[in-house]
Write a structure and sequence with these properties.
single chain, about 130 residues
Length: about 130
């Protein structure tokens, strides 16, 4: 193996292992569009999801405020954030989001996020859930 290849491999390893060279996730550019496209239908202030949980996705501030039961985003810890856990289906099935009951599926509301979308949400939370 040439020294150039070894140097390249070494730099990639250093970058990903020690420096955490993952992309910076933006609330405005990445998270809000996903939430609006998939979740706002049920979680604006005039909807079923809001009436049930008190969780509104109208703005960054309302997302960070959480539900009537408490916060859903713990900045810096996706594994402690209910929003991530329900979207990633790491909770009891009855609280997975989006809902998977027959009415929701019939209305087109039961489509889960892709692995890439879930990972983007996870990264945003782990990066501090910034309003950026």
């Amino acid at each position: 193996m040439t020294s150039t290849k070894l140097l390249t491999i070494g730099l990639i390893t250093l970058c990903t292992g020690l420096l955490g060279c993952e992309r910076q996730v933006s609330y405005t550019e990445d998270i809000q569009p996903m939430l609006f496209a998939s979740c706002l239908q049920c979680h604006d202030k005039n909807s079923e999801g809001y009436e049930t949980s008190g969780f509104s996705l109208d703005s960054y501030d309302t997302v960070m405020q959480g539900t009537k039961f408490g916060k859903v985003v713990v900045a810096g810890s996706s594994e402690s954030s209910t929003l991530y856990l329900v979207v990633a289906h790491k909770t009891a099935p009855e609280i997975h989001m989006p809902p998977h009951h027959e009415d929701a599926l019939a209305e087109g509301r039961g489509i889960s996020w892709t692995d890439e979308q879930i990972e983007t949400l996870k990264l945003w939370i782990d990066q501090g859930a910034l309003d950026n």
